[in-house]
Amino acid sequence: MAKKQLIHISDLHIGLRSQESNLTRLTIKKISADYPDVPVIITGDLTDSATKNQFKNARAILDELAKTNPILAVPGNHDYAWKGNILNPNGWENWAEHFGSPLGWNRPSPVHWMEKDRTPGNVEGLGVWEDGSIVYFGIDSGDPRDKQVSARGYISKSLANALKNLLISHSGKTRIALLHHHPFTGVLTHIFTALKGSKLLMDALRGNCELLLFGHEHEYGIWRNYDSIPLIVSSHKTSEPISGNCCAITVIELENAGANNVSFSHRLEMA
């Protein structure tokens, strides 16, 4: 069975400063040139303060990437709130307008992503996207209703239950879950950025998910076989240089996707 690939990036924070926009453009040039047609997963904070203008700028930049690569994105707390902390009442509407449909997948018509009444499970903030032997599960932890305030995220019981049922219904596929916030407690979590409902989320994912991707803390991390999940990857802030003007992307390769013996390898590549 042929290997499959995906690219994981996160926390672009496109906003008032030009640096994030410029370095994001540099990064997507690398992806377009070296990995055409490979799906790109963005785990939140596409914007810095959830304004309409920032969403327009982010969409314009990612439209360039969508010419060569399909894109799936989930929102983060900065996509709903000024500097990720003070709720923008139009945050959800701005997100839905500019990223309510995945980009670059060449589907015959736009498909809504993560909106109630338009996705399986009938739960706002949960999306399912099938791509052959791989199924992506988008989870909105960005807290658009401001139940937790600050940069903390929120997972409701109804979302977690719907997610678990959907994961189970797609057994036999390689199931990839993506969200913004850190989904379990540990050294990387913090009281002001923690995820409320993390236990509910992990209960749903445990044994029902082959790959889990997230961002939020701007810290790169790898966990293998953690809590019955074969691979978990957290992304750094993609639009922040690691050295000079060099940014990095996470490349994940899947072998035997859709089979019981699916395996993963991963690496960072410089842009």
Q: Would you give an account of this structure?
A:
The protein has 271 residues and is of the alpha/beta class. Helix 1 links the parallel strand 1 and strand 2 (40-43). The chain has a six-stranded mixed β-sheet, with helices on one face. Strands 3-2-1-14-15 form a five-stranded mixed β-sheet, covered by helices on one side. A two-stranded antiparallel ribbon has the order 4-5. The two termini are 29 Å apart. The mean pLDDT is 91. The radius of gyration is 17 Å and the shape is globular. It has helices at 18-34, 52-66, 91-99, 157-169, 198-205; strands at 4-9, 40-43, 71-74, 81-82, 86-87, 126-131, 134-139, 153-154, 174-178, 195-196, 211-214, 221-226, 229-234, 248-255, 263-270.
